[in-house]
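Dear colleague,

Thank you for sharing your sequence with our group. We've completed the structure prediction you requested, and as agreed, I am returning the results in plain text so they can be pasted directly into your records. Please verify that the sequence below matches your submission; if there's any discrepancy, let me know and we will rerun it promptly.
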Amino acid sequence: MTTDDRPGFPRRTIHLDFHTGPAIPDVGAEFDPGEFAGTLAAAHVDSVTVFAKCHHGHLYYRTGRPERHPNLKPDLDLLGEQVEALHARGIRAPIYMSVQVDEYAANSHPEWLARHEDLRQVKRATSAFEAGWQILDMSSPYQDYFADQLAEVLRRFAPVDGMFLDMCWDQPSASKWAIDGARKAGFDPTDAEDRNRYARQVAHSYMGRYRDMIEPALGADPPMGVWFNSRPKTNLHDEKKFLHHVEIEALPTGGWGYSYLPYVARFARPLGLPGVSQTGRFHRSWGDNAALKPAAALKYECCQILSHGLSGGVGDLLHPSGRINAETYRLIGGVYDYIEACEPFVTDGQHLAEVAVVVDPWLGDDPGPAGLGVVRALQQLRQQFDVVAPDADLSGYRVVVLPETTRADAQLRGSLRDFLDSGGGLIVSGPAALDEDGRPVLDELGLEAHGPSPYSHVFLRPFGELRNATAPFDTVMYERGFRMTPRPGAQVLCGVVEPYFERTYEHFSGHSYTPPARLSDYAAIIQNGRAITFAVPLLQAFGQHANVPYRELLGGCLDLLLPRPLLRTGGPAHLETAIVTKNGTVVVHLLSFLPSRQAQDLDLVHDPFPLLEVPVSVRLDQPPRSAVLQPSGQELDLSYEGGYATTRVTVSDGHAMVVFA
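Please find the predicted structure tokens below.
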């Protein structure tokens, strides 16, 4: 293919790291353009992010700038040959540049370094004598230095397939540049929060500047644009103005964990931008160049990415010699072959979601126990849900959930009132139900608050319509809540059993918390019309302790507000689901892999977890003609009753899609 024949937004990508220090000799000496591009094409790859500039600050293309890697073969234009070889095989080649991490610039211009309040340099190390990246201050002249490098790359390679600018977090600094800039912008540099606010302003300033440089070099109607990496995805609702697409870095074994992607992907998805998510082929994380992860783990991660409507991405690391590794691409190619077979059924489809989880974007991408708890619980309950910002349009959802870390300001309270008035359902958990003065955030919650519970542990006893949600057993709540009673017209769904007394060093009984004594006058769960409130931090506690009755109580409350959910399935608790509509079909993703703790701080997947005759029921307005298990093409038995199409599914290899047509 020629450049103009290359496909649109990529589906199976590689992020090809090449951070190569100045002490490495013979850089690129074994690079073979044909072998390079041929290996990637055979692995079903359609886009490779290749390096113009690495964290060491070195450049890998033909340039007169002194930052060119000192040991790159003198006659080798490595980036230029990579781009040309990839384009010849119809593979896109977006270009990578490191921003705030640049060892060459840091060593050449130490006055450009970011500084802590005590004037220590900001460095990813605990000692001056430990290897670690030095961090540049983007309010210093380094911003212009980088702009000069970027301008040269754009002149040399335009039209570019996209730009990946890395290490772009908000970096507070107490350098002279940052102090002067903060004062000029009206911030108080002696105040830590103002330094954070100024850091956000600086980031947005250079993001706008670099975007404006890059966009003219993208060509007409580009499928990809610039991506600023290392920024919180939960700020995308504000920062999407800088972007054409989204990239989510999420190596589960590299520090992100297996719960990260289900949280941030659900936040990014409703924004309407195409997206890529990167896992890695590494056993652990970036730089783990001599270790491959199990094939089942890579398949799970790529299928999970696909199920969230994202393009697949796998991180790799090119050897300094420039020689691509065949075994790495046997692993990746085996997974991408499967993903490519799945794509026709879901690519450009529309995900369905009935539940919106409203989160505070300033919490960043770490959901904490509350965010982790609500995502895991809703996944295990087979609910179809998005994660949204407080200013999101809620009208397309049937239930809204406010976890403990979300505080409802006046705008959100107004949105919630409108949502309830229109027939929506609301679940509010723990502290999210109260304002700063300890009063209910909405009269519609139908409760009176009576201050924090004096007990660190109480016990939950469901009543009425929640009586059968859990076993008939008073379940401990490990986290402290507040006391509440119902207003007239509201009903108690779960009572609070209080202990004999609060445990102290001078007044205790047994090994742990004091046993339950008596049913109190206070409620743990109150329903008032379409609003349900937890006085205890149920979602946070589930994220922290994984106590099954907490999930069951949430499920019982959802059954009251959403009695006919989009999906009902059997199967193990870990089963992950997603629903996509495309061209009149409804596609149900089923993922059955079970990460387990295999090392002190590492969860791994070695094998898929088979599904045997698992019932799958999806709510449809009319009976479908067929149910087919894809990508195998297996016809399934099908029934339709009460508005639900039902089939039974057996899957041995961890992932399948049921296509109702």
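Summary note from our side: The chain has three domains: 3-98+139-170+220-348, 355-561, 571-660.

Kind regards,
the structure core
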